[in-house]
Design a protein that fits this description.
By secondary structure, this protein is α+β, with helices and mostly antiparallel strands. Helices cover 27% and strands 22% of the residues. It has an eight-stranded antiparallel beta barrel with strand order 1-3-2-9-6-8-7-4. It is elongated, with a radius of gyration of 19 Å. It starts with 74 loop residues before the first strand and ends in a 10-residue tail after the last strand. The relative contact order is 0.26. The N terminus is likely disordered.
Length: 302
């Protein structure tokens, strides 16, 4: 998506900005707070959320690059737009004009559009394919040719725009490389952790143990847990992305239940300890569902 060298500051669910513009210098994730938000320090069992993934993969194309570092494509960026109902048609026309400009100038970076179908349903998230940090410098130069299209056709119709980067670390996903099952739904779950390094490490270690158990049992529970970077105050710390083929798949349960499977892999006492550590690290979480929008997406080379 067009990334402009301006001074407006984007973030994640931290406020409203009149006539916002996309700025490459800032950040990523689809994190609009939904009606399912859990209050800070809720006693709700967050650990069951990883038990919601269906057996079908989506085309978000962010499961294969997991190594950290400047030379590895493990950085993804998101812009989430909120549009007034009366501006919806003009906004979508502007996004299509912007994508046409990208095609005319041969922009080589793909951005997938996801329309929010729960939570704030006048929201759209645009998610980049994974790239290296250095690629964002080239991306900015490529998008320069389409700045005027964005400013004239998209920007006037926005209520707010938020953004942040996110990275996918080794051991934080269960997504077979190279698998693409088409354009479907994703459930997006955001996690805000309790303060301190201990909560951060406890969350990451617990999630890695869940994914290690998935790998050991070949469980068809596909998902990715990303760490959010530079999302401003109020942004979540981690985001869980769960793909689904359709609503029937969304409602399907996998047997045995998650923590029954964990007990078989680690033993009942250790599994319970992992579950307690995971819940203790989380201050709050929320979720929403997005549907892939092919008309508003830009695919490089097409």
């Amino acid at each position: 998506h067009v990334l402009l060298p301006v001074t407006a500051v984007s973030g994640v669910d931290t406020g409203s900005y009149p006539c916002p513009v996309r700025n490459l210098e800032l950040a990523w994730p689809p994190t609009r707070r939904s009606n399912n938000a859990m209050p800070p320090n809720s006693t709700q069992d967050h650990s069951r959320i990883w038990d919601g993934a269906g057996p079908i993969l989506s085309n978000i194309h962010i499961g294969g690059a997991q190594a950290a570092g400047m030379t590895h494509a493990n950085v993804t960026r998101d812009y989430t737009d909120v549009v007034a109902p009366a501006q919806l048609q003009a906004y979508e026309a502007g996004e299509k004009a912007l994508n046409q400009c990208f095609r005319e100038h041969g922009v080589k970076y793909t951005w997938k559009a996801w329309a929010h179908v729960t939570g704030n349903t006048y929201s759209y998230s645009y998610v980049s394919d994974p790239v290296t940090w250095a690629d964002f410098d080239e991306m900015r130069q490529e998008f320069h040719a389409c700045e005027s299209v964005y400013m004239n056709s998209v920007n006037p119709h926005l209520l707010t725009e938020t953004s942040s980067f996110m990275t996918l670390a080794p051991g934080m996903s269960n997504m077979p490389k190279g698998v693409d099952a088409g354009d479907h739904l994703i459930k997006v779950v955001t996690f805000t952790l309790k303060g301190g390094h201990a909560s951060h490490e406890a969350f990451k270690n617990s999630v890695k143990m869940v994914y290690a158990a998935f790998a050991k049992t070949h469980r068809p529970d596909y998902s990715m847990t990303f760490e959010v970077n530079d999302g401003r105050s109020g942004a979540p710390d981690f985001i869980l992305v769960i793909p689904h083929k359709d609503w029937a798949d969304f409602g399907r349960k996998i047997n045995p239940p998650l923590w029954t499977m964990m007990a078989k892999v680690y033993g009942a006492d250790k599994a319970q300890g992992i579950r307690k550590a995971l819940n203790a690290a989380i201050a709050s979480s929320s979720s929403h569902v997005d549907r892939y929008d092919a008309d508003l997406s830009y695919t490089a080379g097409h």
